[in-house]
Amino acid sequence: MPQNKLKAIKGQKPTRFAITSNDLLTGDVVYLSVNGTWVLDIAGAKHFASESVAEGVTQHSHAACADKIVGAYVIGLDEAGQPISNRETLRTKGPSNYFHGKQQIT
Amino acid sequence: MYQYHDFDKDFVKDRVSEFRAITQRRIDGVLTEEEYKPFRLQNGLYLQLHAYMLRIAIPYGTLSSRQMHKLADIAERWDKGYGHFTTRQNIQFNWMKLQDVGDVLEALAQADMHAIQTSGNCIRNVTADHFAGAAKDEVEDPRITAELLRQWSTGHPEFAFLPRKFKIAVTGCRDDRAVTAFHDIGIQIIRNQAGEIGYRILIGGGLGRTPLIGQVLSDFVPKADLLCYLESVMHIYNRYGRRDNKYKARIKILVQENGLDETKAQIEAHFHAIKQTHPPLSQALVQKITSDFAPPDFTKIGAFDLEAECALSPSFARWVAQSTDKHRDDNHVILTISLKKHGATPGDATASQMRIMADIAKRYAYDELRVSHEQNIILPHVPKPHLLTIYNLLKKAELATANTGLVSDIIACPGLDYCGLATARSIPIAQQIATHFDTLKSEYDIGPLKIKISGCINACGHHHVGHIGILGLDRAGVENYQITLGGDGTQDAAIGQRTGPGFSFDEIVGAIDKIIAHYLAKRTSRDETFLDYYKRVGMTPFKDLLYHD
Ligand code: SF4
Questions:
Q1: B416 closest CB neighbour out of A10, A86, A102
Q2: Radius of gyration of chain A (CA)
Q3: What is the C-alpha to C-alpha distance for residues B203 and B388, in angstroms, rounded to an integer?
Q4: In chain B, fewer beta carbons within 10 Å around the N or the C end?
Q5: Shortest Cα distance, chain A CAs vs residue B99, angstroms
Q6: Rounded CA separation B77/B82 (Å)
Q7: Ligand 1 pocket test target in B47, B411, B413 with most atoms within 8 Å of CB
Q8: Which ranges of chain A have pLDDT less than 70?
């Protein structure tokens, strides 16, 4: 079954941050990894303790990879390294009406 | 049906080559995303949450079986085997890859289709009554006017960078199925007292964050003046429409801020100034378009006793009762194919379903299909003797759900499952409501009821004009759903009123159930529809039951 229940908690604040984008050619959701590459799985995302540091890295890595990705931005994560927003949770897996997107692969 | 001429073919072919060349420059890193984005959007290519989405124009919602087959081929070859029919009579593919889009556009061009002007601040795909050419009370087929407007507005340099997008809808009937009162311009084809055909023009309607009902700009514009008149509207909008704030840039805000009288005076002054020098409408062109939309020869079908056939099968009879409308010819019906099987995603059709509908249209229904803004497919001219065969074919394809116009025939935008602008999901709410009332087996008892759901304030799901509207919002990170009641997109246009605070994802189906249970318990008879009941009793009892019980 595709995911249906979203687990966002009202007013939850992020404890760490990651950088996400979409791959230019495929449109796939990608995350900036520790070694500076863009990976499909959020488990491989580099974590930042500070949002402002992540913002700075976003601008730098976006400029460096502008021919490979579209529009990098910072997302908030919880303790387990999962996004706190519904939007980003859906982006990690895929839509709730079909078993499509990343949930199809994993 | 309108056929592309050499001009159209060359135009679309050139756009495909241009798209390929410019996209390659983006892939090669010559263009930045900032430079490329406006271009891809002008060709209907969005980047959504999970992938690129391509929005393809279906002018005035009309498709031939060949075109529907082409959409099926695209779904299968380049997407995930399905397409999503939208509330603007378009189709969207949710899983495109950038390097494939040139091939997709080329495939579309082979079937006289494209994705031009399905995004951006231009005149978008002109929509029309989905019963055009078939409705009994029609003054004239609105697609003739819509096609004229398509030709006039496509690639028009003056309309390429408007303050904001611009939507036009046309109807030829008094019964407004095209939601004309909620468009930037709504056009109703009418006959005046002298018997001449012309246009009643509404201006400044719209949904979104500022829902407004269109106001009458002109009671009667003669046919010959239409393009000159609309050019004057566009001129005033281009000149005075706000460009400083995107939320105030639609023409409805210009009309609201300046008032109808002043806007009208400006438009008419411009109209009179350019009228003498404006090129006259080519009668040869109008005649050519009119002949393209000439109705099929209905006289070949003789009288048929459909009632007798219905008497043999209750399920067929129910489907006929729910899915067909009166046709201008007594031996035909207008058939609505529901894309709302209980629990399915509203408006989605698989490639094989598209092919089945296309084949049925070709074999039994004069090779014509329509997309309705209510996200269903219409066969506008169905001979009564073929209905049973069509029913059996549709049933095998899970396309014979007899729920048109009922509680499960829900309009829902893609919402947070796909859309980059969304604040909450729409699709699972629609699925759960449809399944809930199907389980209760109560939807025939409930009767006509339009539920419309949007995943954000932009209102692509038309929630403001739902008898029950649902608007998905984000409240401190969680999905929250506001309910509106009493909206109406027809000639009796009304904007739904909010019941009060919203409901959570887990509560919203229960809230809708309460509203409907109350209506069922309190209506005077089955003849009093939900909307009639709401108009009679107002909001108070609903507020009481939702918030005070
Ligand atoms: S209403 Fe909002 S969420 Fe729904 S399709 Fe439109 S922009 Fe997206």
A1: A86
A2: 14
A3: 43
A4: C
A5: 6
A6: 10
A7: B413
A8: 1-4, 106
Domain ranges (residues) in chain A: 13-21+43-94
CA angle B152, B85, B5 (to 5 degrees): 35
Tell me the percentage of chain B whose pLDDT exceeds 70.
100
Mean pLDDT of B238-267: 96
B422 CB neighbours in chain A (<8 A) are 87
CATH 3.50.50.60 fits B127-291, yes or no: no
Contact A71 B47 (CB under 8 A): yes
Ligand 1 atom, smallest distance to B472 CA: 3
- What is the whole-number distance in angstroms between the Cα of residue A95 and the centre of ligand 1? 15
Share of chain B above pLDDT 90, in %: 95
- Delimit the CATH 3.90.480.10 region(s) of chain B: 306-396
Task: List pocket residues of ligand 1, CB cut-off 6 Å.
Answer: B 413-415, 419, 421-422, 454-456, 458-461
Residue A94 to residue B50: CA distance in whole angstroms: 7
Q: Which CATH class is domain B411-547?
A: alpha beta
- Over residues B191-196, the mean pLDDT reads 95
Query: What is the dotted CATH code of the domain comprising B6-110?
Result: 3.90.480.20
Which residue's C-alpha comes closest to atom 6 of ligand 1? B460
Phi, psi dihedral angles at B473 (to 5 degrees): -125, 170
Place of tokens 């609309």: B230
The CATH code for residues B306-396 is 3.90.480.10
- The whole-number pLDDT of residue A64 equals 74
Looking at residues B507-536, what average pLDDT do you find?
98
What integer pLDDT is reported at residue A61 of this predicted model? 77
Instruction: Please state, rounded to an integer, the average pLDDT across all residues of chain B.
Output: 96
Q: Give the long-range contacts of residues A34-37, CB within 8 A, separation 24 or more.
A: A36/A61
